[in-house]
Specification:
Blueprint (H helix, E strand, L loop, with lengths): L1 H23 L16 H4 L4 H7 L15
Helix pairs in contact: 1-3
């Protein structure tokens, strides 16, 4: 809970909305990846992940797994 309070105080509600919008635009963070992994609240509050999603819209990864060829 403390991490949530810190982020809310730092980024305000508008910052959370921006981060969540960027998260929503990222298929990879929503589980469209080889492992089915999805970003969760614990991940968002760890190691600068919130900041990365807040600062810019994540790049969409190629559907071929980033191998460079289709």
């Amino acid at each position: 809970r403390n991490k949530i309070r810190v982020k809310l105080k730092q980024y305000k509600l508008e910052g959370w909305m921006k981060m969540l919008s960027n998260l929503e635009q990222s298929p990879w963070h929503r589980g469209v990846n080889d492992s089915g992994w999805q970003a969760d609240l614990d991940w968002l509050l760890t190691s600068g992940n919130f900041e990365k999603l807040y600062e810019k819209t994540p790049r969409r990864r190629p559907s071929n797994g980033g191998m460079g060829r289709i």
